[in-house]
Amino acid sequence: MAKTILAVDDSASIRQMVSFTLKSAGYDVVEAVDGQDGLDKAKSRSINLVLTDQNMPRMDGLSLIKSLRALPQYAATPILMLTTESSDAMKTQGRAAGATGWLVKPFDPQKLIEVVRKVIG
After folding, report:
1. pLDDT in tens for each of the 121 residues of the chain?
2. Contacts of 102 (CB under 8 A, 6+ apart)
């Protein structure tokens, strides 16, 4: 059975690129328009990996990570930040919140697939 990835980004074009890239590699993808939408969708189904942007309306990426980590079913689920934010301070905040890894936009589709395969197979 295909593993399910939650792609959370307020940019429709980024969601489409991420979704297309991961679906072509054999993954199921659930899209969310912001952190709150992502949290709601994560609560309603089983997700194997979360990819989230940082800067979004309603709930940002760090808040989403903290909210997911507070749920028992997501305590150990890999969460990758996919964002334009690349400062060490932001990465430190991401790690403190519970992020598993960090990818900077614009992303290389092949690199995205490699990282996802490394994290969830």
Report:
1. 799 999 999 999 999 999 999 999 999 999 999 999 999 999 999 999 999 999 999 999 999 999 999 999 999 999 999 999 889 999 999 999 999 999 999 999 999 999 999 999 8
2. 80, 81, 83, 86, 91, 94
